[in-house]
Give the backbone structure.
Amino acid sequence: MASADDAPILAVRGLTRRFGGVIAVDDCSFALTPHRVWGLIGPNGSGKTTLFNLLSGVLAPNAGQIVFKGQNVAGWPSHRITALGLGRTFQITRLFHGMTVLENMRVAARAADPARVAARADELIEFVGLNALRDEYAGNLSYGQQKLIEFMRILMTEPDVILLDEPFAGVNPVMENKLVDLIHTLLAQGKTFLITDHEMRLVMSLCERVLVLDYGHLIAEGPPAAIQADERVIEAYFGRRRSAAPSPPTPLPGGEGSSSGPLSQGERAGDEGIRGPLSPWERAGGEGASRPPSGSREE
Amino acid sequence: MVPEATLTVLAQVIISGILLGAVYALLAIGLNLIFGVMRVINVAHGDLMMLGAYTTFWLFTLWGVSPLISLLVAMGLMFAFGALLQRVVVERVVGQPLLVSLLLTFGLSSFLTGSALNLWTANYRSVPAFTGSLEMAGLALAVPRVIAFVVALAITIALYLFLKYARIGKAIRATSQNAEVALVCGVDVARIRVLTFGLGTALAAAAGSLLAVMYTVYPEMGRTFLLKAFAIIVLGGLGSFGGAFLGALALGVAEALAAYVWTAQIAEAVAYALLIGVLLARPSGLFGIRE
Amino acid sequence: MSAIKLQPPRLALSPRQATLLLAGVLLVCLALPFVASAYVVSLLFLLFMWVALASSWNLLSGYTGYVSFGHAGFFGVGAYAAAILIWRLQWEWWLACLAGGVVCAALGAAIGGPALRLRGPYFAIALLGLSEVGRIVAVVWEPLTRGGLGISLPPTAELLPDYYAMLALAVAATALVYWIANSKIGLRLLAIREDETAAEVVGVPTTRYKLLAFILSAFFPGVAGGLYAWHVSYIDPGAVFAVSISVRTIASAMFGGAGTVFGPVAGALLLNLLAEVLWVRYPFFHPVLFGGLIIVILLVMPGGIVAVLQQRGVLPRSRRL
């Protein structure tokens, strides 16, 4: 388990990005320590995808720094950031549809040796159980399959930090568990994750620390239980209608009130049996499940 | 102090450019309309203009019809031709990536240019219907240009009013802003596309008829003027009516000044320089095109 | 989830068979001038030229998806570069032609950077514009190019050197495309065509690759232009910068199948053979034919012949093709 004083592997300082009059990311600052699963949540339009785009080099910031492995990568082209070890997946999968699954994997490979590349690609495709579809055009895969392959594809670039943009969106429970297992396996291998999703139950149970964004600005940071109880966060999601507010959030199993540290496997597995009224977070997960309109600020 | 004579010449050159610019505007606005409504960049737009020019030429040469009348005939004929083209060919690629329609209209352009070459040979033609110059405020302006300007301006104003107040005009604007929403609001979007392509083609034909009166007519003229129209749109902003109009005037003036200071051939290059210069200087998200 | 079982393609050749086939075709091409008439040799010279043009266009536009309407621009620049070197500096024709190619590659390096930042349609139109600028420069810069008068070169009595030179160029262009298509470079170019942003995110240095394709794609029309100038012994701006050259190139490549190796070769040979055979009746037929063909191809078979054959299970679905 990582100690709390690990030096941050990815730090953001004063990051700002505007689109015309809209400030999508507003003076955002945070630091991610390695070997953890970090969560990023926020209401629709809070700037999560824009932040991902900035971190991965798809967009350049108007101001601020992104320090990854000691270098300021703000404004770097995506391929350099990926080469340094930061990879990401997309909210709506962006596989190369006219190329086969295997070809998709090969494009992302860093090694020059074709044998090694092929072996690694096969290994990853096998890992998600899709070797039967190896030579199938990526465009013919089902949505869930595409999501898995996109995840595998970015692993071909040997990233140390992986940004997952809504990895659980539109994915069935079986696939969900598979993804979670995968994340844990990779975590054990030393990777760091930053995951954003609207599936609150999953985010809260999977992530050790959660960042909350609202209107492009970071409003809270901490362990899941603390975040759920945080007034500013509740306000961001539900507004100031305290009188009509639902009952206080039910803390997830594993601790009363402020628990810190990751939940154990067993505690996570106990999620199915959440008793009592749904916490606002579970309700928020339901509301937030509506996909934000894509293409509004994304290129 | 600048000598009086130079000022006069300069003023003449600039006004002359503005007069021509109004005709360019017709072409650019037509191209704009088509792009706005169906997200198609019509590379054949210049060649449709060329057909309008030839219509005027033949009507004048064979039957002595005044260009002002053949303008209307050309507009009518080309409106129908454009509508037909849209229905039969262009509609099939609406909604596909821009590159597909670009290639398609590029092929169409080649087809039309080649047909014109075969039918009417590569000889330069002219329509010497109007001659002489007009004296206005101490400036001498060529009559053909003045007439062309007046007609072009009239058409532009009529179009503007049409788009602003007529039901179909509003439907066109709605469709170009958001076709899906327009559809939901009861606009027959497919029919609007046909009409718009016809309208854009008619405007190109009008521009061609007016240019025939001022310039030589030849099969490959379409390409030259297409690139001018494109330069105008790049300058004025795709989708912007006013931008296209002002951009057109600006190009007209720039060309006139270049012809005055250097040669006519260099003036020809102004549009290209503008086009390439603007494209290279602002390559990304030129007009926030929603693709 | 089992893989979809496809019927094995009807026309699958083993690598050995394919190599033998290609070697055979090459041998025939090499031997032909000794048995065929001058007309046939001349015709083949032109067909090889269109193969070189289509293959090189394909390298950029078929593989990266950056469709260029300006291929004629490089043809013209190459033609004039070679012609000027031969006429003014008395260079050897083959050296001048190679120099023409190098000039075009350098030009490609210079304009590729800014040009490739343009998105799809703007890239196409910008290249069209640049091609036209090339023509205007050739017309205006009279001290160098003799403007509209054109440049006359000493006529060649022998056909064979021209023939072999153009054959070599066509083979080189196609071989390069084959090599790239089957390498990591080719895969990455295709990724750029599929989704440039995603390609960047998975680590493809897109700018570098696009530029490479652009420069390589500019070299061949440059040499072809020079060889053409030498062969016909006279060029003028309208002839070698004609947009119809770009149209014909695109139609040839697309007819066979842009984004495949041999598609453009097949398309170039078939289409231009047809055109040359028919042209005697209609002088300005080509723009009509090729323009109309582009329309038909786009509406009916956007992937070209190769794609149709692959879909019907006649040809294997392989990047080697």
About this structure: Chain C has a mean pLDDT of 90. The beta strands of chain C are 151-152, 234-235.
